[in-house]
């Protein structure tokens, strides 16, 4: 038995007395009810701290709670003990030592190392031929820091021994994310071998898709039986739909669908409605060919590039990664890299850019003590905690330290560089932000722009009190639609977070060079000679900006002046300018052969950007507005019957449709009513309901359900029936929390004490802002927090003058493959972030970027 001195490396910790078995058992008796054996489904975190990137390889080791199986570094374990009262932790430490050299100078012959018993990921930065590992495990009992060395079968109670063995032998909770095992996670659909495909003559074009039941053009799924193109469910990354693909399956029973936009020569995202999960279709090429899609037109090579694109893509990879230049490594705060988990560079590049923005640094890292102290009982499942953890890891400098002078001398003498243990692994962050998302939860490459929008929505939904750092990206777009027949106009506004610029290929300034290159390339291919040096199209940025501002035709435009469909044109302008402007270059498209294509172009992106001329002007003198008449709501017959015969249960309201409408700026209660009274038929139908009813005085009032089988009377008495037990309220208030806060937490969690405490810790803004809980006891419906007066979207308008400070570049043929790299301007110079490698940039390829980040220049 040891005291704290030995554990924390204090002097005098080595000569401690050994206690008898009875003493150890006696010491553990009070804590036995809290020690659990991991069950199937329990996640055992023994590789990484929940609040930091400490691991058993860290100097202070790692502490695993023997009740929750969460892990904590030395500086965070006390917080968990104080919050939960859990006293027994397993301390894990891996010691790394340089191997003893033989007489000839080489390492001694390899032999089985019996001192390694932890199932931990080895550090790829350390060469196993030069280093050896020794693992240490012990039980630590707080608050006195008593230690019990492990293994200790003779002296420990049987339950404790079984629990310790189970923790030590448990697998990583992220094991399924490993590249070699991910694809095996997807089962082969039982419908793939004998899938019926209708000979209905349907042929799917390579672009211009639209849902057959609504006007959505994103998150579209192709049914592999009849070729119907229908929208999927709404996701919080601004992609999604009204669930028409699922409705189609329920109507006709056609089981398999493939997501449009994910089809590559290597496969695609296939979903089985009958099996209710993503699946593999071994006959996908044949099933797609039935509808005119040739997914195997081009075959991928081992490195993921296309055979006929090797020459241009290699050049692109060299330029963007600055290959051939001697890049100086950067260390310290703000210069920490992110290790690649296998196609996770899209996430790494976006997060490096995000945490270079002061507003995000202040919101998360600046509030670290408060966020960590108020984190829920399981901080691995809390967005704000994991954002703060990642931000601190990137900005603190703790995981980006330069090599010691002696190590540099050793490298020179041996003439071989020794990799440094730098960078952090974002496994826990990726697992949380991608859960329940079919694309980001996979181990395949993804679109950085889609992940950026997904992250913004997570920030919106998990904002800390009134502070929302994503406000810096939000701006209003004014859309002007003109009926071509009557010349009347309608002005509307919508919220957006990035500016999408088309590539104006027709404006290339080196057309003669491109024509000559193409002729030479074809001739070289025909004669099997080496390909000529790549000539890349040079596109003026001004031409892309001009293409963005030009009018575009509106498909299926319904003119309220004609009460019929008509031709219409739309122009877009900025109703407000954001604090930070994100510009995406729309480089990706599909060819006529359905193969993903990327415009390999060079655009002279400006360091200083002025878009003040794109400021919206509103209704102009002489313009006549279209009548404010909504198009007729067309309800399918089956849905009509469903609405007439039964009302949906209020608890079954489709929250995804509600959030989709709320993002447009409508009051939350109005959105809930719209979805309810249109029978969960999707956001589009609910939107039409809002347009019709938005002038009514009770438009934003809470939802009431008269005539719903007595629901009205039930709702009236809900406030009284939901009164939490007074003894539970007293128990929470005895912990120092306000009575109103205790009532709110218990009502939100059905009077479950443990969940109520978790709710309080995950909603610190309610404790600090008394406006949220005032007069709770006097309100019969106190479980509903009254909303303030409906407000418009929060925007930070200002000048349209911007300065470039970061950009993300993509290498590869499509967003489904390749690699992402981020360049950020820090302290007056450009820095390249290439996964875990962070170096000073010598030639930042600003003309080849995919996403650009601009900050406003104060006027």
UniProtKB/TrEMBL annotation:
GO terms for cellular component: cytoplasm. Residues 652-693, 723-763 form the UBA domain. Its main location: cytoplasm. It catalyses: Thiol-dependent hydrolysis of ester, thioester, amide, peptide and isopeptide bonds formed by the C-terminal Gly of ubiquitin (a 76-residue protein attached to proteins as an intracellular targeting signal). Keywords: Autophagy, Cytoplasm, Hydrolase, Isopeptide bond, Metal-binding, Phosphoprotein, Protease, Repeat, Thiol protease, Ubl conjugation, Ubl conjugation pathway, Zinc, Zinc-finger. One of its GO terms (biological process) is protein deubiquitination. It is found in: Cytoplasm. One of its GO terms (molecular function) is cysteine-type deubiquitinase activity. The active site is at 345 (nucleophile), 819 (proton acceptor). SUPFAM superfamilies: Cysteine proteinases (SSF54001), RING/U-box (SSF57850), UBA-like (SSF46934). Residues 187-295 form the UBP-type domain. It comes from the Eukaryota. CDD domains: Peptidase_C19B, UBA1_UBP13, UBA2_UBP5. Pfam families: UBA (PF00627), UCH (PF00443), zf-UBP (PF02148), zf-UBP_var (PF17807). Its EC number is 3.4.19.12. Residues 336-857 form the USP domain. Zn(2+) binds at residues 211, 214, 231, 244. The keyword Coiled coil does not apply. Deubiquitinating enzyme that removes conjugated ubiquitin from specific proteins to regulate different cellular processes. Belongs to the peptidase C19 family. Interacts with UFD1. Interacts (via UBA domains) with SIAH2 (when ubiquitinated). Interacts with BAG6; the interaction is direct and may mediate UBL4A deubiquitination. Interacts (via UBA 2 domain) with AMFR; the interaction is direct. Interacts with UBL4A; may be indirect via BAG6. Interacts with NEDD4. PANTHER family: UBIQUITIN CARBOXYL-TERMINAL HYDROLASE, UBIQUITIN CARBOXYL-TERMINAL HYDROLASE 13. This is Ubiquitin carboxyl-terminal hydrolase. It comes from Tursiops truncatus (Atlantic bottle-nosed dolphin). The lineage of its organism: Eukaryota, Metazoa, Chordata, Craniata, Vertebrata. The gene is USP13.
